[in-house]
UniProtKB/TrEMBL annotation:
GO molecular function terms attached to this record: nucleotide binding
Lineage of producing organism: Bacteria, Pseudomonadati, Bacteroidota, Cytophagia, Cytophagales
SUPFAM superfamilies linked to this entry: Glyceraldehyde-3-phosphate dehydrogenase-like, C-terminal domain, NAD(P)-binding Rossmann-fold domains
Stretches for region Disordered: 342-366
Pfam family, one: GFO_IDH_MocA
Record organism: Cyclobacterium lianum
PANTHER family: BCDNA.GH03377 (PTHR43818), OXIDOREDUCTASE FAMILY PROTEIN (PTHR43818:SF5)
Domain Gfo/Idh/MocA-like oxidoreductase N-terminal, first and last residues per copy: 39-162
Superkingdom as given in the UniProt entry: Bacteria
The protein's name in its UniProt record: Predicted dehydrogenase
Domain Gfo/Idh/MocA-like oxidoreductase bacterial type C-terminal: 205-257, 371-442
């Protein structure tokens, strides 16, 4: 089966709107770029993945990063210096992202801010007529993920989710093999995230350092006293800002599980885990195992996060395993796979984007350049149908992680209605589908 048609089938099957239905676009695109038209980009969040966004955007033909955005002016000045050294160009510095939405010279917004900012920044950018590349997870909770989808459709914007393995030729080949029955009837996908995650200690509270606008950093989330256990990066391990490793590294794998099985959100969810290693400031579980059941499709997803010394599974420590009645396929990381057939596990077809005979994806960059190239092509053509990671996948793959985290917090099996995107007769669980937003940073009910 052609991979593009399978992607469209996935979106059509799984992106069923709730009572707040997706509406038809109400505006016409402000511009369609020609091949020789320069695209100006702003990068929001420049500490971690933002550095990769800068590099990948600058690697695209006739694309210019003109603006760097971060609440930490100290970090911005560091990136401005390294940008000048790398590209011999100046770049503007902005602390408040809203200034970039008001800037008519900026065409594309690339979001690498903390998770709690992803949905609102995407919605604001769409409302301002900008196209968006947003890091995983697309959302911090399920409700705001649906609002992202609605905003992208209403304002007719190109929104790419940062799951770069969807642009890997090798991974796409593996999906085609699954679709074509190479390993038979595929009934289960297993996602694994075995990452070295040490203790973060407990640094306590401290004054906000000079140069950081902590109110802007906090944005839609509850405002806690400042701590170096939050700013920067370790916000991943606190519920108000991050989603644990299943909502960090794990989104690549939740996305691939759903893509490979050709399913949307599940109807039965259970999850168990905890902190077993470190007496530190992390709030999220270090070890987490979640099971997502699809009784109507007769399929199941298993997902596991481990933080420390552990074995490989099928040669992978971060990746996916698809099980069929004729064999199984292991997707290792972002850009390679191998298959095994029959009871004796005879090696079958394999693919790797990073070897000498690879197909052009830079394994070291995890395919980020290729994923941005797909995004920029869609921006130039104003054609969301060619996106490898459209906004619907941001909502769904993030939503799968959120469902597992909710089941973990409530310590019980949950029943979910994918059509309404609510739990079945469970008011307590429904309350966890969204959050209270700070004044001035509300995700709008009507986008």
């Amino acid at each position: 089966m052609n991979n593009d048609s399978s992607r469209r089938s996935f979106i059509k099957k799984s992106a069923i709107a709730s009572s707040a239905a997706i509406v038809a676009p109400t505006i016409v695109s402000s511009s369609v770029f020609g091949a020789n038209d320069r695209i100006n980009a702003a990068v929001l969040g420049v500490n971690g993945r933002g550095k990769n966004h800068i590099q990948s955007l600058m690697n695209q033909e006739n694309v210019q990063v003109t603006t760097l955005v971060d609440p930490d002016m100290n970090l911005l000045r560091e990136r401005q210096k390294s940008f000048k050294e790398a590209y011999n160009k100046d770049v503007a510095l902005v602390q408040d992202m809203r200034r970039t939405f008001d800037d008519p010279d900026i065409d594309v917004i690339s979001i690498a801010a903390p998770n709690h900012w992803h949905a609102l920044a995407t919605i604001w950018a769409c409302q301002a007529g900008k196209d968006v590349y947003v890091e995983k997870p697309g959302s911090h909770n399920i409700w705001e993920g649906r609002k992202m989808v609605e905003a992208a459709h209403k304002y007719d914007r190109i929104v790419q989710h940062g799951v770069q393995l969807r642009s890997s030729p090798a991974v796409r080949e593996a999906i085609d093999l699954i679709r074509d029955g190479y390993i038979g009837n595929v009934y289960m996908a297993r996602g694994i995230v075995f990452r070295w995650r040490p203790s973060i200690g407990d640094k306590g509270f401290s004054p906000v350092p000079d140069g950081i606008d902590y109110d802007l950093w906090t944005g839609p989330a509850p405002k806690r006293p400042f701590s170096r256990n939050l700013v920067h990066y370790n916000w991943h391990w606190h519920w108000d800002y991050g989603n644990g490793d299943v909502g960090n590294q794990g989104i690549h794998e939740t996305d691939l599980c759903m893509w490979g099985l050709d399913v949307g959100l599940p109807t039965k969810i259970t999850s168990m885990g905890g902190k077993f290693l470190w007496d530190d400031a992390k709030e999220v579980p270090e070890v987490l195992t979640s099971v997502y059941n699809y009784p109507e499709e007769n399929k199941i997803i298993q997902f596991e996060v481990r933080p420390w010394c552990t074995n490989e599974e099928g040669g992978a420590t971060v990746g996916n395993i698809f099980y069929g009645d004729k064999g199984y396929i292991v997707v290792d990381g972002y850009d390679k796979y191998k298959s095994f057939l029959g009871q004796d596990r005879t090696p079958g077809k394999s693919g790797d984007d990073g070897g000498p005979s690879g197909t052009g994806m830079d394994r070291g960059a995890g395919g980020t350049d290729g994923h941005f190239a797909n995004f920029i092509e869609a921006v130039r053509k104003h054609d969301k149908t060619i996106l490898n990671g459209p906004v619907e996948t941001a909502h769904l793959s993030s939503g799968l992680a959120h469902l597992g985290n909710i089941a973990y917090k409530l310590e019980r099996v949950l029943t979910f209605n994918p059509q309404s995107e609510t739990f079945v007769n469970d008011e307590e669980a429904d309350q966890m589908l969204t959050r209270n937003y700070r004044k001035g940073f509300e995700v709008p009910e009507q986008v």
